[in-house]
Amino acid sequence: MTRISDDDRQIFEKAIFLPMVLTILNRDLSVFEIAPFKLKKPYLHLLEHTMKKVQKDLYQIKQQMKKKNMKVWEKTRDDAFTLFSFIYQGYEEEHNYFNPRIRNEVQQLLESYLIEKNSYE
User: Fold this and answer.
1) What is the Cα–Cα distance from 89 to 6, expressed in whole angstroms?
2) Edge-to-edge strand order for the sheet containing 91-98?
């Protein structure tokens, strides 16, 4: 039985998934920089703008975790599952995530950032 509330579980999961979104955006940025697009600047600007928003959200998540004394790290990974360790209210819990679920969550987050945040401010 987990001691972690649903709201705090979302914080843990964002702390897991947002760095993955940043990794994907960084890789895509490097691909766009060398791709033979006629007009690359709009794509690069979109990716950079999205990365800044993700970094800002990740910073806020880390601040919330620090305030609540929460920590998370990856313990093991295999072809099917990734095991994470959560420190919450002085207790350590291990949570196993199915890798396709992680991929789907990261994909949904990436889509929401790109679609929802694509207007220039």
Assistant:
1) 14
2) 71-77, 81-88, 91-98
What pTM did the predictor assign? Answer: 0.89
Q: pLDDT tens track of the chain, all 121 residues?
A: 678 999 999 999 999 999 999 999 999 999 999 999 899 999 999 999 999 999 999 999 999 999 999 999 999 999 999 999 999 988 999 999 999 999 999 999 999 999 875 544 4
Question: Which pair of structure tokens corresponds to residue 37?
Answer: 């697009």
Q: Which residues contact 23 (CB under 8 A, 6 or more apart)?
A: none
Rounded Cα gap, residues 68 and 64, in angstroms: 6
- For the chain, the C-alpha Rg in angstroms (whole number) is 16
Number of domains making up the chain: 1
DSSP string, 40-55: -HHHHHHHHHHHHHHH
Domain that holds residue 69: 6-116
